[in-house]
């Protein structure tokens, strides 16, 4: 897996500013910027550390700027946008950028004045640590590289002013560091508000010089400007580092930036020793990362020539992280700002974990959420501040059944069945009981056996935007996908109960009786669903029904009534639904959330938060829905050779997208209008998971 961009594609600053790269560390921390080296959003930097994995994420190391110096000649490689006295000012070091490569590491190659600088950024998996390796090739007289690190300590979604920096990181916080033989040089600091946090930057192959001008002021972030948000950020740059090369010589240097937490078990704040850095440290780490990427691809088991599958298998790894509070694995919903959401996790689960052969991670994720079931509800989200989970969702619990079902399909062993029987099945029973009797947020089975959810200001389906007291997409009542999931959950519970009964010696008759009850209820749900939800005039399903209304708005939620393992419609109705969705909602990179003929349709997702929230589910296209759509398309087409070839073409727009926004991954959402620009999170778990899942099913069938 390798993406490479050459100079002729990199010299356009404005176009490439929106092409990003991302590296993650398995803890919720990450690194990223644009492929030309300029930041354009608050959520960018070389090290965003997770202090309480996978949350409490703080930017500590923003970036490095470089200058090539040969005598009186200076070539500034800085690429950034700053607010000037009249207009934006652009530092276009990208005019010296010969290539950018992303292969799990990010490598920039610059050339100017007979000098060549290669800079490779690597993130260390399992640690809040990033490394940079420099190779300086000097084809002229004696010359050097001046490297200026920009440091910080702020929440990854906020910005800093100089006054903020003076309060959080006064220059007195920065301590110089030199080991005994001066081989390792650098500095370390703790912010004034977190004495238990230490950030260090240690280098080898350099000299260090104190700076007089220590603030990088008014870095302008174009993404924030686009979204009418605070767009200026500031960083502190207390030291320069110099790499020198003799005439015709080559010099190398390694930088290691680390965030350490004090040991809470000691009376005083004890930090580990600062890392020992060798010239080859960063280069060795880049090789380790390359090997890890190769191992991920091999483990996923796709054809070695299938580059699309390899790219998605590597992208999948970015979302699977540790959660300290449960001691288990979880799935980050999206980078850069989402944490782990129950709904997103269960939808992404199959593609990210099962299709990539990560079965132990799959078990851990199922445990992570079953341990936190409350009132029959799987957590909607684990907040960023580490407080108790939120449970305001009706579908996360139902998607949990789907995840467990798929786990047993992929890992159909006695050990897997025993794991489900002992660890998971009681949680499934708790959910079933709560949904039948009724639980929080007006979630519960109605007298007609259909599932009701939501009231007042509740937003409990995935279309969950609310602005203060305004519910943008009210779906209180009986949403179509919730009832499709309810039927699927009942049938799944029957299947799992019968499967356990065949394998257990612990009162199998009880499991068989439970299975019979689920089947009986599912039969009732199917009959009622077909009577109540079919919109004959439109040839598709109502989106929501209530006591005194039936909402015929054409939305994509009905596609799950065709795609789930257990469904209720006859073949003619399924085909009609798929045709209607394809005709009005399919846009190549996703399905629109609303029919463009609807008067409230909004085709562009941009501007202030309020503007974006009003568009989020009112026309914006969602990539994760492609999974259900393509699966449904194959189903109603009978999986014929022609249908399979047609389905394969659906991946072409996604493949093009892999080099247009965040390199090698898939965005959360897209404009409903052409050219369907990627929006929202630049890397989304269920987008990657669902497309990988259905693609895998297609190529492995």
Could you provide a short overview of the structure?
The chain is an alpha+beta fold and 701 residues long. The protein is built from 19 helices and 38 strands.
Number of helices: 19
How large is the share of residues in beta strands?
A: 25-35%
CA(first)-CA(last) distance:
24 Å
Q: Give me the CATH fold name of the domain at 3-292.
A: Beta-galactosidase, Chain A, domain 5
CATH class of the domain at 3-292: Mainly Beta
Molecular shape = elongated
Unreliable stretches covering 5 or more consecutive residues: none
Q: Give the tally of β-strands.
A: 38
Strands in their spatial order, largest beta sheet: 1-9-10-11-12-21-16-15-14
Radius of gyration over C-alpha positions, nearest whole angstrom: 27 Å
Structural category is: alpha+beta
CATH architectural type of the domain at 3-292: Distorted Sandwich
Main β sheet profile: 9 strands, antiparallel
Keyphrases for this structure?
single chain; eight-stranded antiparallel beta sheet; nine-stranded antiparallel beta sheet; 19 helices; alpha+beta; Beta-galactosidase, Chain A, domain 5; 701 residues
């Amino acid at each position: 897996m390798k993406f490479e961009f050459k100079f002729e594609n990199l010299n356009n600053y404005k176009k490439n500013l929106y092409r990003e790269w991302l590296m993650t560390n398995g803890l919720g921390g990450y690194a990223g910027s644009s492929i030309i080296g300029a930041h354009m959003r608050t959520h960018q930097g070389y090290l965003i550390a997770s202090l309480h994995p996978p949350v409490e994420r703080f930017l500590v190391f923003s970036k490095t700027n470089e200058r090539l110096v040969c005598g009186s000649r200076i070539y500034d490689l800085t690429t950034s946008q700053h607010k000037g006295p009249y207009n934006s000012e652009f530092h276009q070091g990208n005019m010296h950028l010969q290539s950018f490569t992303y292969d799990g590491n990010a490598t920039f190659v610059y050339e100017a004045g007979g000098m060549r600088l290669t800079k490779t950024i690597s993130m260390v998996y399992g640690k809040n640590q990033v490394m940079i390796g420099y190779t300086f090739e000097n084809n002229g007289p004696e010359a050097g590289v001046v490297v200026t690190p920009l440091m910080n300590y702020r929440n990854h979604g906020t910005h800093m002013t100089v006054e903020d920096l003076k309060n959080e990181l006064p220059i007195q916080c920065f301590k110089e560091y030199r080991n005994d033989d001066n081989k390792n040089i650098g500095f370390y600091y703790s912010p004034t508000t977190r004495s238990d946090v230490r950030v260090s930057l240690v280098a080898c192959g350099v000299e260090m010089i104190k700076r007089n001008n220590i603030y990088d002021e008014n870095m302008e972030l174009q993404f924030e400007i686009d979204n009418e948000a605070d767009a200026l950020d500031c960083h502190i740059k207390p030291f320069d580092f110099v790499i020198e090369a003799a005439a015709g010589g080559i010099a190398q240097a390694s930088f290691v930036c680390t965030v350490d937490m004090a040991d809470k078990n000691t009376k005083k704040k004890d930090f580990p020793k600062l890392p020992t850095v060798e010239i080859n440290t960063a280069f060795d780490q880049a090789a380790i990362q390359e090997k890890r990427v190769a191992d991920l691809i091999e483990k996923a088991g796709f054809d070695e020539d299938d580059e699309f599958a390899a790219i998605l298998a590597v992208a999948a790894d970015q979302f699977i992280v540790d959660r300290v509070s449960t001691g288990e694995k979880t799935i980050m919903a999206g980078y850069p700002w989402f944490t782990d959401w129950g709904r997103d996790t269960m939808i992404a689960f199959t593609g990210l974990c099962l299709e990539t052969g990560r079965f132990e991670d799959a078990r851990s994720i199922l445990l992570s959420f079953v341990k936190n079931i409350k009132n029959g509800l799987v957590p909607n989200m684990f907040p960023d501040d580490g407080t108790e989970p939120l449970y305001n969702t009706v579908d996360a619990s139902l998607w949990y059944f789907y995840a467990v079902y798929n786990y047993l399909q992929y890992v159909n062993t006695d050990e897997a069945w025993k794991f489900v029987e002992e660890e998971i099945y009681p949680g499934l029973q708790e959910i079933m009981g709560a949904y039948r009797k009724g639980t929080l947020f007006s979630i519960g089975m109605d007298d007609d056996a259909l599932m009701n959810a939501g009231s007042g200001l509740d937003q409990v389906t995935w279309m969950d935007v609310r602005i203060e007291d305004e519910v943008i997409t009210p779906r209180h009542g009986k949403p179509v996908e919730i009832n499709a999931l309810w039927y699927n959950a009942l049938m799944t519970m029957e299947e799992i109960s019968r499967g356990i009964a065949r394998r257990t010696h612990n009162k199998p008759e009880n499991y068989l009786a439970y299975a019979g009850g689920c089947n009986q209820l599912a039969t009732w749900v199917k009959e009622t669903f077909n009577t109540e939800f079919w919109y004959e005039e439109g040839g598709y399903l109502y989106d929501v029904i209530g006591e005194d209304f039936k909402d015929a708005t054409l939305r994509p939620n009905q596609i799950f009534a065709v795609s789930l393992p257990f469904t209720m419609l006859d073949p003619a109705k399924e085909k009609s639904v798929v045709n209607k969705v394809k005709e009005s909602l399919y846009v190549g990179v996703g399905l629109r959330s609303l029919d463009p003929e609807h008067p409230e349709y909004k085709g562009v997702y941009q501007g202030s938060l309020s503007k974006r929230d009003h568009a989020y589910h009112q026309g914006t296209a969602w990539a994760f829905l492609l999974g259900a759509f393509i699966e449904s398309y194959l189903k109603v087409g009978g999986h014929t050779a022609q249908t399979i070839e047609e389905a394969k073409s659906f991946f072409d727009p996604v493949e093009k997208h892999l080099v247009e926004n965040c390199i090698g991954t898939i965005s959360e959402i897209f404009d409903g209008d052409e050219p369907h620009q990627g929006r929202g999170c630049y890397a989304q778990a269920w987008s990657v998971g669902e497309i990988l899942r259905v693609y895998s099913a297609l190529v492995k069938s």
